[in-house]
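Researcher: We plan to redesign the surface later, but first we want a full-length starting point. Tokens attached.
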């Protein structure tokens, strides 16, 4: 079995979060969702758990970070530059915001956004040869 990744994020409004991630083209797995949490299916091995802050707090004794802070940047690969644009444009249309300028290094292209709760996501396309060989020398 492949390693599965579960990203857990606290949210203010569970229904808003579900609608936001569905607008990006992801689905909700109802088997692992209820009125306190939703399982967003990103791929066969990557899942995003959006949890009400009360539910999220059940998993930690530490304070939940304020929306204006950042502790992690979630980065996902995209199969093409067009897919990078599709996802980030959809995120902005669904209530997110593009939080920094695009980055184009030739062999790698990236755009990023924050979701309505302020969680940062980067979508990255990398030239397959560069992914195998490493970045070209400057």
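Model: Full-length starting sequence:
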């Amino acid at each position: 079995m492949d390693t599965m990744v579960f990203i857990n994020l606290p949210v203010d409004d569970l229904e808003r979060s579900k609608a936001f991630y569905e607008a990006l083209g992801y689905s909700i797995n109802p088997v692992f969702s209820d009125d306190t949490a939703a399982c967003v299916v990103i791929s066969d091995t990557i899942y995003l758990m959006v949890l009400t802050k009360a539910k999220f707090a059940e998993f930690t004794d530490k304070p939940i970070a304020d929306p204006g802070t950042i502790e992690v940047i979630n980065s996902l690969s995209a199969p093409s530059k067009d897919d990078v644009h599709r996802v980030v444009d959809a995120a902005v249309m669904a209530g997110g915001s593009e939080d920094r300028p695009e980055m184009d290094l030739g062999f790698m292209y990236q755009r990023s956004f924050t979701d309505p709760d302020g969680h940062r996501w980067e979508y990255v396309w990398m030239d397959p040869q560069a992914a195998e060989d490493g970045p070209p020398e400057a």
